Amino acid sequence: MSITTFAVAGATGRLGRHVVDVLTERGHQVVPMSRATGVDIITGQGLAEALTGIEVIIDVASWHSSDQDAATEFFRTSARNLHEASRKAGVAQIAMASIIGADKATAGFLAAKKVHEELLLSGPIPVRILRAAQFHEFVGQLLDWQQGDVAYLPAVPTQLVACRTVAEELVDLATAPAAPGTPIPEIAGPRKEFMAEAAQLLGARRGIKVVGVEGSGMPDAEIAANGGFLPSPHAKLAGPTFEEWLDTQP
Length: 250
Ligand SMILES: NC(=O)c1ccc[n+]([C@@H]2O[C@H](COP(=O)([O-])OP(=O)(O)OC[C@H]3O[C@@H](n4cnc5c(N)ncnc54)[C@H](OP(=O)(O)O)[C@@H]3O)[C@@H](O)[C@H]2O)c1
Known about the structure:
Elements: E1 5-9, H1 16-25, E2 29-33, H2 47-50, E3 56-59, H3 68-89, E4 93-99, H4 108-121, E5 127-132, H5 136-144, E6 150-154, E7 157-158, H6 163-174, E8 186-188, E9 193-194, H7 195-206, E10 209-213, H8 221-225, E11 236-237, H9 242-247
Parallel strand pairs: 1-2, 1-3, 3-4, 4-5, 5-8, 6-10, 8-11
Antiparallel strand pairs: 7-9
């Protein structure tokens, strides 16, 4: 199938703006959906109009904090609304970004993403999921959430990946037919690193001292510390590394 019309939910976000760029560079028509563009996937405002003539939705909208209950409620409502509006508009497929480890999570934002996956998969429109590692761009948010000149971040292994890399993979997947019986695809960066160490590199630029701590009260700290949220053997690994990416940032 030659898909040409996409709507991107969360088009102004860290990942969403790259998804819009990739689609545009490949010559597709893109309708950006976020509250900033007048489309609210929670209240439904502007949604039916935005989906007129759309063949595929890429859902990269997100809740702004790590609160599990609030995030779950956001994804519950967005999944229901996107399916309902897609059914009415004749959308053929929804592709969504999830997080590596969502299937193993018992708490926190990752557990909310597990619910997000399940609810999207249970709706009437075919859904493709891409699980990504934490974004290079997310490290800055972790620092933003801290107060003062010293940031305490978990010294857990991760395999950070660039949003642009995830966007390219997600756009490929969004137009691929369903592949029953195959594992959910994953995308991660080229090498294992520790979240606190990556944050130290960024912190040095911002004048923030970063201290790595065990667990630091994060949900599922033991699973994370044991590498339980690292990519599966079938994951695609692609650069740039965090350090290479940081060198390209203004
Ligand atoms: N952060 C990571 O490291 C990571 C890793 C793997 C996967 N993911 C997943 O990737 C996706 C994107 O994450 P991100 O970090 O790029 O998110 P983000 O930067 O927080 O962006 C969220 C986007 O959602 C939009 N949005 C929020 N509420 C909305 C509403 N009611 N209606 C319409 N749009 C709304 C926001 O725009 P407005 O505010 O203008 O509405 C924004 O464009 C999420 O599903 C996330 O779980 C994230």
